[in-house]
């Protein structure tokens, strides 16, 4: 029996800068993600919602009515518009909604735009044992919204992919990394799956017609090479790419390899993308290990582009670069020194729902 996939029906994954109906978040509750900092992180969520909610709804996953009431108190005290937040009760393992949340595709019809959800079978980055509650989120979202749900599969079974492992320009081009999805030994999401099989699956389930592969990610990335820490589209023909200029920094060599690879990139129409450098902040460490601090982990909402900052002089440089690239949105920094203790920041926590 053939499996119905989104692309032949006209569905594709929109770009993040396209209009949103909502942003999905998961209220933070797992103390192992932010050791000793969980209460601080809830205040960071207040700042995130304060900037996102003026332009769109926020749909917040909470474990109970009591947790929703507590979250409301945090958000209200942070001056976030609580009336723009919908609380959806569903018990979760963690709050990394970029990877476990509903990934939306959209198509145009005679009646207007239609959105649907692709279930990409989150498995905690092929690393942690507790993912069963998070894996149910796409189905919960589909029922809550009354949306069609596509169950992503390949010939070998369930197709495992995370939203942080890909980025799209909304016209068919998708960028990812070999380290994340093609490494044959470390954090293997889809055992035995080849590059070509990935490209076919990304085409069938997300409408990608042109897949670009960077070699790898940054030191400290718990996901083993997610692209949203190194390379992001900012419009259909332009991407930002992280660069480390200091040869003494342990990220220098890997990021230089990415810059060599990007020289050969071509967009879906055969043209070369414009590639703009974003700096790295200074290294941050916790318990003897380097944390994946990166300005590329920004999130594009309708109202604002929220950018992680790290108490480093390059904060101002990164905000200036992104401010020039997103002139129709407010570009604002959000303190992320505590947030990155969880091995991710703003983009990792958010998931956009495109407008229909």
Describe this structure in words.
The protein has helices spanning about 40-50, 65-75, 95-100, 125, 130-135, 135-145, 180, 195-205, 250-260, 315-325, 345-350, and strands at about 20-25, 55-60, 85-90, 105-110, 110-120, 150, 155, 155-160, 165-170, 175, 210-215, 230-235, 240-245, 275-280, 285, 290, 300, 305-310, 330-335, 350-355. The protein has about 350 residues and is of the alpha/beta class. It has a single domain (about 5-355), classed as L-arginine/glycine Amidinotransferase, Chain A (5-stranded Propeller), CATH 3.75.10.10. The longest helix has 15 residues, at about 40-50. The protein is globular and about 50 Å long. The relative contact order is 0.17.
Summarize the structure.
This protein has eleven helices and 20 strands.
Mean pLDDT across every amino acid position: 97
The low-confidence runs, each spanning 5 or more residues with pLDDT under 50, are none
CATH class: Alpha Beta
- Secondary-structure class: alpha/beta
Please tell me how large the radius of gyration is. 19 Å
Helical percentage:
25-40%
Into which percentage range does the β-strand content fall? 25-35%
Number of strands: 20
Key phrases:
356 residues, alpha/beta, L-arginine/glycine Amidinotransferase, Chain A, four-stranded mixed beta sheet, 11 helices
Show the helix and strand layout:
Blueprint (H helix, E strand, L loop, with lengths): L19 E7 L11 H15 L4 E6 L2 H13 L7 E5 L7 H4 L2 E7 L2 E8 L4 H4 L4 H4 L1 H9 L2 E4 L1 E2 L2 E2 L8 E2 L4 E5 H4 L13 H12 L3 E5 L16 E5 L2 E6 L8 H11 L11 E6 L5 E2 L2 E2 L8 E2 L3 E6 L4 H12 L4 E6 L10 H4 L1 E4 L2
Parallel strand pairs: 1-2, 2-3, 5-6, 10-11, 13-14, 18-19
Antiparallel strand pairs: 1-20, 4-5, 7-8, 9-10, 12-13, 15-16, 17-18
């Amino acid at each position: 029996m053939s499996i119905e996939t989104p692309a032949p029906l006209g569905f594709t994954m929109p770009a993040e800068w396209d209009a949103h109906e909502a942003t999905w978040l998961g209220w933070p509750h797992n103390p192992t993600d932010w050791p000793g900092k969980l209460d601080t992180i809830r205040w960071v969520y207040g700042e995130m919602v304060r900037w996102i909610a003026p332009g769109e709804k926020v749909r917040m996953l909470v474990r109970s009515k009591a947790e929703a009431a507590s979250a409301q108190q945090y958000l209200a005290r942070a001056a976030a518009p609580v009336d723009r937040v919908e609380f959806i009760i569903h018990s979760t393992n963690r709050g990394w909604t970029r990877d476990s949340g509903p990934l939306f595709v959209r198509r145009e019809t005679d009646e207007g735009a239609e959105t649907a959800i692709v279930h990409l079978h989150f498995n905690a980055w092929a690393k942690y044992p507790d993912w069963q509650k998070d894996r149910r989120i796409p189905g919960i979202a589909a029922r809550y919204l009354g949306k069609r749900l596509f169950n992503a599969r390949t010939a070998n079974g369930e197709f495992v992919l995370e939203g942080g492992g890909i980025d799209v320009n909304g016209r068919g081009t998708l960028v990812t990394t070999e380290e994340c999805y093609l490494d044959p030994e470390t954090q293997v999401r889809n055992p035995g799956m080849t590059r070509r099989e990935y490209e076919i699956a990304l085409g069938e389930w997300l409408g990608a017609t042109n897949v670009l592969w960077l070699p790898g990610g940054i030191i400290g990335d718990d996901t083993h090479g997610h692209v949203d820490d190194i390379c992001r589209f900012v419009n259909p023909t332009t991407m930002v790419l992280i660069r480390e200029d200091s040869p003494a920094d342990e990220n220098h060599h890997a990021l230089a390899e990415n810059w060599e690879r990007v020289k050969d990139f071509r967009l879906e129409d055969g043209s070369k993308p414009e590639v703009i450098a974003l700096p790295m902040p200074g290294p941050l460490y916790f318990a003897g290990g380097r944390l994946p601090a990166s300005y590329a982990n920004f999130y594009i909402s309708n109202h604002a582009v929220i950018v992680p900052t790290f108490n480093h002089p390059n904060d101002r440089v990164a905000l200036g670069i992104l401010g020039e690239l997103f002139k129709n949105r407010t570009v604002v920094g959000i303190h992320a020194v505590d947030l990155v203790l969880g091995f991710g920041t703003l983009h990792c926590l958010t998931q956009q729902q495109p407008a229909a």
